[in-house]
Amino acid sequence: MATxxxxxxxxxxxxxxxMVSVPLMTVVAMAGLSSVSVNGLGLIPSAEAAQGEAEGEAxxxAQGEAExxxEGEAEGEAEGEAEGxxTSEAMKEAVRRPEGYEPYDGDPDSLAEKGKALFSDTSLSSxxxxxxxxxxxxxxxxxxxxxxxxxxxAMAKSDFGMDEVHLDEMVQICMVAPMAAEPLDWQSEELxxxxxxxxxxQEKFRxx
Length: 208
Description:
Layout: H1 2-31, E1 37-38, E2 41-42, H2 47-84, H3 89-94, H4 108-119, H5 131-135, H6 154-160, H7 167-176, H8 189-207
Antiparallel strand pairs: 1-2
Helix pairs in contact: 4-8, 7-8
């Protein structure tokens, strides 16, 4: 009899213990308490804290990328403005005859024929222009074009700082300025051909 009563009391205590401990453990697991220690045991950091930490890192990285992009764009704009202020020193030098320069040596008639084709060749430019765009039918030349080279040309002086130019230098200036292209190779047949054809154009201009 005493044994049966002891068993009932024991089972009652166990039931009451389970009724308290099970909900408590459920609440603790659901809440995800952070940085709290119970009986010296650290609990798992909460999802909310982890999310806040991740958002902070993402925001910092995005801000850093935006600042880096902004700095790069600002530097690019500054360089563009500097270059847009006029012809660069490097380009001014590129249209001048190099030291020790000797033009390409070829048959004048063959060069003139090739030069005539190049005169209308839009592939020489970066903007779809050709020499003929401005100078079809001996048009578009300044009055000074009838003078012997070298002589002073307004565009060469104002944009390139050259007091006078040779005919092949003028060809190079036209390649760079109106046609927005790189100068031709100084030793190239193309430059010699265009220069020879321009001599013919000059003669036509003088005769009109």
